Amino acid sequence: VFHQKIDYAPAEVSTRYGISGVKVRISYSQNKKGRAISETYKIS
Questions:
Q1: 34 near 9, Cβ under 8 Å?
Q2: How far apart are CA 34 and CA 25, in angstroms?
Q3: Per-residue pLDDT of the chain (44 residues; tens, 9 = 90+)
Q4: What is the total count of domains within the chain?
Q5: CA 5, CA 17: separation in Å to the nearest integer?
Q6: What is the pTM for the complete model shown?
Q7: The pLDDT of residue 24
Q8: Which of the residues 12, 17, 18, 25 has an alpha carbon 20 to 30 A from that of 34?
Q9: Is the Cβ–Cβ distance between 26 and 6 less than 8 Å?
Q10: For residue 13, what are the domain limits?
């Protein structure tokens, strides 16, 4: 069971060679003091 909040953000860009897509995953976790930490990973 996962206890993290995860968001996804797909994006597309049009170039002269075609359309390229990027999917970004944002993972929110909490440190020991209870503050939110976010990490972003890009997959192209």
A1: no
A2: 21
A3: 456 677 778 888 888 989 888 887 777 665 555 555 555 555 55
A4: 1
A5: 36
A6: 0.35
A7: 77
A8: 25
A9: yes
A10: 5-43
